[in-house]
Predict the structure.
Amino acid sequence: MKGMLTMYSNRNAILVCSILGYLISITLLANMVHFDSEVIAAAPATTLIVTNTNDSGPGSLRAAIVQASPEDTIVFAPSVRGTITLTTGQLVISKTLTITGPGAGNITISGNHATRIIHIGADANVNISGLAFADGYLVDQPGSAIDNDGELTLADSHVFSNTGRLEVCGDPVGGAIHNSGILTLTNTTINANTYADYYPIRPYYCGYPTGGVNNEGTAKLSNVRFYENGTAAGLWNGGTLVMTNGEIYSNPDGLKNGPTGVLTVTDSQIYENGAGVSNEGLLQIVNTRLHHNQAGIFNEHRLTLIDSQVDNNISTDPYYGSGVRNQGDLFISGTQIIKNIAVVQGGGITNYGTLTLVNSEVCSNTVEAYGGGIYNAGTLTLTNSLLHDNSPSGLANGYFVAIDHAQIYKNGEAGVLNGGTLTMTDSKVYDNHNAGLTNYGEASIHGTQFYDQSIGISGGSMSITDASIYNNSIGAWLSFVDPNDTIENTTISSNHGDGLRVWNGRNGPITMTLNNVTIANNTGKGVLVSSWSPTATNDIVVENSIVADNVGGNCNVALDSRGYNLDSGNSCALSATGDVTDTAPLLGPLIDDGSGTFTHALLLGSPALDRGNPNPPGSSNYACATTDQRGVSRPQNGRCDMGAFELVPSVAFRQAAYLTSKDIQAITLTVALNTMPTMTTTVSYATSDGTALAGRDYISTTGTLIFPPGTVEEVIALQILNDPANSTGRMFTTTLSDPSGFELGRPNTTFIIVAANVSRMYLPILWK
C-alpha cells in the first residue's frame, strides 16, 4: 500500500509538474504570440517603420536606427512627410542597414544649421535612397551633411544647403558629403552647399575647400548633378573616383582632383563654372563636354582627354587661359577644342608642360596676343590634327613643337608663329590670312605643302626639304638667314609674286644652299635677293636645280652655281660645269601625283633629264639628293635629273578611254614611254570583258609590245564586231602588265566604249 501511495504520489508529482510546465509553456507562447502579433501588424520582421518626424523618441528615425539589427530595413509610414529636424546631434550608423525614403521631395533630414546629419561608421554597410539632406553644419571637419567611413550607397536623393566652416587650417575641408570609405552615388543631386572661411583672406596652406563631395576613399558616381555649390569646388577628389553621366555646373570651381587623386570622368558635362577642371593628380576624361566655364581645364600633373569637347570657355584672367592650360603631362586624342577666348595667350590651349595632341581639332579660338589656337612654351607634339580659324594665329611656339600630318588653315595672322624649335612633317598649311609659317626661331620643314596665303613661309634659320610652296602671293620670304639654311627637293611654283625672296637682315654675309629645287612659273621673280646693308654680301648656292619660266625674270642677282642647274633664261648667270641656260625645261603641270606634295614632272625630251651631278647621290661634291621630293630614289635612269622631280621611266596608255562604234571595225590604242629608252623595253597587254563581250562585240586580244631603243610609242590594234543587238553602247577594257626596263605608269588600264552607231558616239566621264 505504501508503495502504491508512493507511486501514486510520484505520478501526481509528475502529473502536476507536467501540467504546470504545460501551463507555463502556454502562457509563454501566448505572450510570444501577442508580441509577434504586434510586430506583424506594424511591418515584416526585418523592417522598422518611422511613424513621425521627431528628432528622437518612439517612432523616430533616430530610434529606428538604434533599435535596428544588422541587415534590417527602415521605411517611412505613408503619413510621414516633411522635415526631420535634428536637435540632439548627428545620426550615427555602425551596422549594415537599409533606409528607404519615399522620395527626396517628400522627406528632408535637416541638421538645423547646427550639426552634421549622418555619420557612417567604419564597419557599416548602408544603403540610403529617396531622401533629402539639408542644413548640415560643421566646423573644421569635412562632411557637413554625410560623413562616410564605411560603405555607403546613396541613390535617388538630394543633398543641399549644407555648410562647412574653416576656423583652424586643415586639409581636406568642407564638402556636404565626405568619404573616406567606399561610396556609391546614383541619381542624386548635390547643390547649394557652401564653404565658409573664418579667415578674411584664406592662407594657401589651409587645404582646398569643397562645397559638394569631398572624396578621400573609393567612390563611384552615376547620374549625379553638382550645381551652385558656393565658394568652393562642386567635387574634390583625393582618392579613387569614377564619375559617369554626371553634370557639374554653376560652381565657383567645377571639379578638383588633388595630388593623391585618381579620377575618371566619362560621358559627362562640366559647364558654367569658374574653373571647369583643376588637376594635380591622375585624371582621365572621356566623351565629356567642358563648356562655358571661365577656364576649361587647368592641369598640373597627368591628364588624358579622349573623345571630348572643350568649347566656349571665356577667361578674363591673363594667367589661367580659357580652353586648356597645361603645366604637367597632357595627352589629348579625338577631341575638339573650339570657340574659347583668352586674354594674353592660348585661346584654345596654353602649354608649359608636355602636350601630345592626336586626331583632334583646335579651331575658332581667340586671344588678344599670342596663339589663338595653341600657345606653346613647353614640349608639344601635334599629329593628325586640324588647326584652323583661330585668331590671331593658329600656333605660337616659344620652345619645342613637332607637327606631323596636320592641317593648319584659315588662321588669322599666321598659321604657325615660331620663336622656338619647330619640326613640321607631311602637313598642309594653307589659306592663312598672312603667312603659313612665320619663323623667328629654328625650323625644319619636311614633306609639307604651303599654299593659298599671302606668304607661304617667312623668316630664317630653317631647312626645307621635300616641300611644295605654291599659289601664295609670295612663295617664301626668308630673312636673317643662317649659314646652314638649305632648301632641298622642293618645288616653289605658281606664286602670284616672287617665288623665293631672300632678304639679308644682317650687317654681314649670308649663305643659303638650294639643291634639287624647282622654282618655276611664278608671276614675279623666281629668286629675288636684297639686303638691309649696302655692304652685305649674299651667297645663294645652287646645285642640280631648275629656275625657269618665271614671269618677272628668273633671278635679280647672279647665283653661286656649283653645277648642273638649268635657267630658262640667263639672268641667274649660271656658268659652272653642267649648267644649262636659255633652254625651256619642258615641265608638266603642277599636280599632286599621289605623294602628298605638288611637283612639276619632267616631260619627254626635257633637258633636265639625266643631267644632274654624276657623283653618287648624297655624297659630297655637290651631289644630288638621294631621293626626290616624292621620296623616289635617285637616280632612276643612270644619272640624277635636275630639279625636285626624278622621272621614273614608265609605260602607260596615252588615253584613259577610247570611243568607237560597232560600225567601225577596228581601233588602235597608243602606248607610250615617258622617256627615251636606251635598251629594248617590253610590256604585255590583254583585253577584258565589261558590258561588251569577247566574241560578240570584239575579238579578245593579248600580246606584247616591243619598244626598240629610241622608240617611245607603240600601238595595239583591236577588232570590233558589229552586234545588231547593241543598241545602247557597251564597254570593255585593255590592261598593261609585266613591263621590262620601265614601270607601269598611269593610266595602265584604258576603257573602250563601243557605241551603237557613229551618230550616237559619246564619251562618258571615265577619267579617275
Summary: Confidence is low (pLDDT under 50) at residues 1-43, 760-768. The longest helix spans residues 2-42. The radius of gyration is 42 Å.
